Amino acid sequence: xxxxxxxxxxxxxxxxxxxxxxxxxxxxxxxxxxxxxxxxxxxxxxxxxxxxxxxxxxxxxxxxxxxxxxxxxxxxxxxxxxxxxxxxxxxxxxxxxxxxxxxxxxxxxxxxxxxxxxxxxxxxxxxxxxxxxxxxxxxxxxxxxxxxxxxxxxxxxxxxxxxxxxxxxxxxxxxxxxxxxxxxxxxxxxxxxxxxxxxxxxxxxxxxxxxxxxxxxxxxxxxxxxxxxxxxxxxxxxxxxxxxxxxxxxxxxxxxxxxxxxxxxxxxxxxxxxxxxxxxxxxxxxxxxxxxxxxxxxxxxxxxxxxxxxxxxxxxxxxxxxxxxxxxxxxxxxxxxxxxxxxxxxxxxxxxxxxxxxxxxxxxxxxxxxxxxxxxxxxxxxxxxxxxxxxxxxxxxxxxxxxxxxxxxxxxxxxxxxxxxxxxxxxxxxxxxxxxxxxxxxxxxxxxxxxxxxxxxxxxxxxxxxxxxxxxxxxxxxxxxxxxxxxxxxxxxxxxxxxxxxxxxxxxxxxxxxxxxxxxxxxxxxxxxxxxxxxxxxxxxxxxxxxxxxxxxxxxxxxxxxxxxxxxxxxxxxxxxxxxxxxxxxxxxxxxxxxxxxxxxxxxxxxxxxxxxxxxxxxxxxxxxxxxxxxxxxxxxxxxxxxxxxxxxxxxxxxxxxxxxxxxxxxxxxxxxxxxxxxxxxxxxxxxxxxxxxxxxxxxxxxxxxxxxxxxxxxxxxxxxxxxxxxxxxxxx
Length: 733
Ligand SMILES: Nc1nc2c(c(=O)[nH]1)N[C@H]1C(S)=C(S)[C@@H](COP(=O)(O)OP(=O)(O)OC[C@H]3O[C@@H](n4cnc5c(=O)[nH]c(N)nc54)[C@H](O)[C@@H]3O)O[C@H]1N2
Ligand SMILES: Nc1nc2c(c(=O)[nH]1)N[C@H]1C(S)=C(S)[C@@H](COP(=O)(O)OP(=O)(O)OC[C@H]3O[C@@H](n4cnc5c(=O)[nH]c(N)nc54)[C@H](O)[C@@H]3O)O[C@H]1N2
Ligand code: SF4
Ligand SMILES: [Mo]
Description:
Blueprint (H helix, E strand, L loop, with lengths): L1 E7 L8 E7 L2 E7 L12 H4 L1 H5 L9 E4 L2 E4 L2 H19 L4 E5 L7 H5 L1 H8 L4 E3 L6 H11 L7 E2 L6 E5 L3 H4 L9 H10 L3 E5 L12 E3 L6 H14 L12 E2 L1 H7 L5 H8 L3 H13 L4 E4 L1 H4 L4 H14 L9 E2 L43 H6 L8 E5 L3 H4 L3 H9 L3 E5 L12 E3 L9 E2 L9 E4 L1 E2 L12 H12 L8 H17 L10 H6 L6 H12 L6 H6 L4 E5 L15 E2 L3 H13 L8 E3 L15 H4 L7 E3 L1 H7 L6 E6 L2 E9 L7 E3 L33 E2 L4 E2 L4 E2 L1 E5 L1
Parallel strand pairs: 6-7, 6-15, 9-10, 9-13, 10-11, 12-22, 15-16, 16-17, 23-27, 24-26
Antiparallel strand pairs: 1-2, 2-3, 4-5, 4-17, 8-14, 18-20, 19-21, 23-30, 24-27, 25-26, 25-31, 28-29
Helix pairs in contact: 3-18, 5-18, 6-14, 9-11, 9-12, 9-14, 11-12, 19-21
The chain binds ligand MGD (2 copies), iron/sulfur cluster (SF4) and molybdenum atom.
């Protein structure tokens, strides 16, 4: 007997609604849910492989505990006993800063990852937080923090209504979009063109997205900040700016013109390897479009001037009057966001560098230290050395610079916990591995991505399959972990959720702007519904949110609740100290001279960029044969001119060398990449011993991040430079 169940797909940011076919306790099929209010039936090959992923035989079924040096299967009680016996004494002995927390990407794809890490950090009282954000979008958080006073106030392109999309350093046809949650991103791009709109793509590679575009510019990697500065310069110099209703909310417009004066199209054109005319034309087209949105992702973030590029994206949206208007770039309003404040006005602002990392003095950003600095913080002896790591859904040995060094560093820890379904390159160093159940056995709500979605909506998936015997829900794992590391081992895990609820409600009751102002928090907590702690917390957040929704409302509408198109939110959302949009914040102004200096540097002859493949996701989908079949994907793309110059042949091998080391790679000659640039994907190289990845271990591939030593960072955000770094290439026989 088969049945169906709905489940939001957790495999990328598009959050498609899936209809799973279930036989017994196995997912035997997945198709797009045509009635889903947001994704309307869209599915990609990854979503279609949901069943294979759920049933991967290498997924851990029980916790693992290190005994006599080897990881062995254990019961949940044994696992948490081991943590409770190890961590509090180490904290007692070395102080709370001996602990570090590492959070990887899938935390934004699980309810547990949204609800518990803040509580874990509080319980540990550590400042050592490292997340995938500093390998990814931290530049955008910083620029939003500085411009709008809120690092999560990230405008998204109004994909379905815009007349002109300038898409930079993103390949949503493969990635399905990022910081712009939009099921069927490819279809939405085609629809933009079909309604007469214009798509311009800026990417050193002729990607599948670039192939859909009206115009494709292929500048030199790392030059986006210069290109964007020259676009803004042109708008200002040619008096093409028109911020419209935003004008009264802007601070620093006059100073901006002055600050960008050096970045003329003629000056930046050689560094970008574009013509000055192309740049001017693009600025004029952007200004002339009835509505337009500039949107930039990974290729403009994980580069030397990532924060400046992220800032300039919004500067362009502001100067053209497109920020916060339909058809431009708008701020989503998710169902679990705090309800907008009744009155606009000065906020608390956004500070950087409130503390610094111990070894290299990297400034804290949004409470985080750069992932690229994790290894040195673990390795370097002295007061505050990290001796305990708790890694949740993270595989930094493959995803962060210099994995070999991190590998060695993690192997020397006094204690490590991994919350991870796989025994992989990172979790193999743990003393205890706590495996969450497969996604079909977990409930789902997109706390993170609804805040970046191109249409406001809310959807909740209860578990599609009941929790299998011997499994523990990931939320429960987190709650017990928090208790075990903080001397409360054995307490009822529900107390963790109830304390979080009581805390939030007490704060809401004391806040004159809250709908709960003056209410009795305990009486209010008594009205929450939900079978589990996380469901009760979701219900609370929905009720405190802007739409007056409840969990029951979402349970009644399994295909989701449509909350309407994005709408204007300025000035209510601004939290800067001035209460206005701070167009030229001090840290940005102080960084512009460094960008100007970049104009004088001679560009490297050859630089490397990454790329993504539709059937992959960072490092962790390579154990699913349905997603890895076909030809080797971990090849080095080289332009024919470079191949000719360097004596490289298609199908041959080369040695590639950069700051951090060398790799031997297969060469694929293709004119889909511009000359002077080569491309290698990340997340590969599953050949380390001690993992349990039967299928991934035999798929060829190397770890591109071994080319990096972790010293190249975007200084304002601490984000690793993963794109546009110099490499050398020699042919191998
Ligand atoms: N060179 C280069 N490097 C890059 C990038 C690049 O473009 N180029 N991209 C960067 C980016 S954008 C990112 S986000 C990072 C990602 O960096 P990471 O987050 O470190 O890497 P992932 O490969 O996503 O690893 C996710 C881990 O979570 C586990 N996992 C999967 N599902 C679950 C779950 O439901 N619960 C739990 N607890 N664990 C789960 C997986 O087994 C895996 O161990 O990589 C970065 N690294
Ligand atoms: N299939 C698949 N989907 C994914 C992922 C995956 O690994 N596979 N990962 C997920 C994650 S964690 C993220 S963060 C998102 C990322 O989503 P996207 O940001 O769309 O990431 P990419 O597909 O890597 O596209 C980045 C593009 O930037 C280009 N680029 C590199 N350097 C530069 C530069 O200096 N300037 C410009 N203008 N372009 C440059 C690259 O050639 C590449 O085409 O994707 C998510 N979705
Ligand atoms: S596009 Fe993303 S969310 Fe949609 S089915 Fe594919 S992997 Fe899942
Ligand atoms: Mo990412």
